[in-house]
Write a sequence for this structure.
């Protein structure tokens, strides 16, 4: 019953809000249309854009890498971080996909998720149930119990949302200021400048990127767009369709911290991180980009809107798909990343997901194709 209550609350809070945002800010529709066009342009020539991005990061004084799979990614991050460090992580589905947090913990590091939803998922040791709101399946009452049992917080079922958030804020701020490394994902990466753009509302990403001396951004190659202008557009569209508009923060990272306050000569580092590392991950994405139908899935901007309009997701929740990917988009990404066609089999093709997708991805068509590929593989 907990899931039904939680998802009903989430739908009532989010769905009307997104429609209201799109009505009040109609230019978002035009931005979404442009974004689809530029993302498709990159996906049609992905390998060239990867090289352009890597070179652009190096020009800003950053370090840039391309990794093929999860094992290679974990080993690289482990090498950069080392052992015995305190690591704070901004929400990154790609980091979850690759098993970064648990791998760094196994090396002897203290690692904390700092997005509230991901923090709760870490405490509960459960997979995320929504691409944007990973703890959407947890009611306020269960969260209070979790915080009390796991960390000894003085809270109860009667604690307000504000009181619960304040307790977590106090705990995590101590971690930010003692962290050696900050790890984030990316909402978009600009090929022309190598800049990483991140959109958020909590402020945890901004602190993870600026306070620790080392910042690592790890993301899929599908997040590359041609220009910094396009990257900011992606952040705006993602925020609007996620129901959080205007976003509280949009962060742009272009290499390590710098200053030009002495004789206008730009030097690094300044007060922020002295090291910046961008890790671009393949893990099935390049192969999918070469398939005319699967390529559509790579347009996904992770707004999570398709979840709340899908009858199957309303019943199955986060159990539909391979973590961290759930819901209609998760059924596509379970195949791209894990080569698992089973989640696609649950799709009833209602078409609601296609109707509300900002990128106009024909999700039912992609899932029908994955069903075909799955049956074909089973018969061979």
């Amino acid at each position: 019953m907990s899931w039904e209550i939680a998802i009903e609350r989430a739908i009532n809070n989010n769905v009307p809000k997104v429609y209201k945002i799109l009505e009040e800010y109609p230019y978002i529709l035009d931005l979404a249309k442009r974004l689809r066009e530029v993302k498709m342009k990159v996906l049609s020539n992905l390998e060239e854009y990867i090289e352009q991005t890597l070179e652009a990061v190096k020009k800003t004084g950053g370090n840039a890498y391309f990794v093929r799979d999860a094992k290679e990614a974990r080993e690289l991050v482990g090498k950069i971080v080392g052992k015995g460090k305190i690591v704070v992580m901004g929400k990154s589905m790609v980091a979850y996909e690759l098993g970064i947090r648990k791998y760094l913990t196994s090396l002897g590091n203290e690692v904390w998720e700092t997005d509230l939803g991901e923090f709760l998922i870490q405490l509960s040791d459960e997979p995320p149930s929504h691409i944007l709101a990973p703890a959407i399946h947890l009611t306020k009452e269960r969260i209070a119990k979790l915080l009390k049992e796991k960390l000894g917080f003085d809270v109860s079922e009667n604690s307000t949302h504000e009181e619960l958030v304040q307790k977590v804020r106090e705990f995590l701020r101590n971690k930010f200021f003692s962290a050696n490394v900050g790890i984030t994902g990316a909402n978009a990466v600009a090929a022309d400048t190598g800049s990483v753009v991140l959109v958020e509302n909590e402020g945890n990403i901004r602190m993870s990127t600026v306070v620790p001396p080392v910042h690592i951004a790890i993301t899929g190659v599908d997040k590359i767009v041609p220009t910094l202008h396009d990257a900011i557009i992606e952040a705006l569209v993602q925020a609007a369709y996620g129901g959080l508009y205007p976003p509280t923060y949009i962060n742009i990272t272009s290499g390590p911290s710098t200053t030009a306050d002495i004789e206008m000569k730009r030097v690094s580092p300044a007060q922020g991180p002295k090291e910046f590392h961008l890790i671009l991950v393949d893990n099935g994405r390049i192969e999918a980009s070469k398939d005319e139908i699967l390529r559509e899935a790579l347009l996904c901007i992770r707004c999570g809107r398709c979840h709340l309009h899908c009858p199957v997701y309303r019943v199955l929740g986060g159990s539909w798909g391979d973590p961290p990917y759930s819901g209609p988009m998760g059924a596509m990404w379970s195949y791209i990343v894990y080569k698992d066609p089973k989640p696609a089999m649950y799709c009833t093709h209602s078409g609601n997901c296609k109707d509300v997708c900002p990128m106009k991805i024909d999700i039912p068509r992609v899932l029908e194709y994955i069903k075909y590929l799955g049956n074909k593989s089973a018969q061979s």
Notes: Strands lie at 63-67, 86-89, 110-113, 181-184, 188-190, 196-200, 214-220, 224-225, 249-253, 275-281. The chain is about 50% helix and 10% strand. The chain has a mean pLDDT of 95.
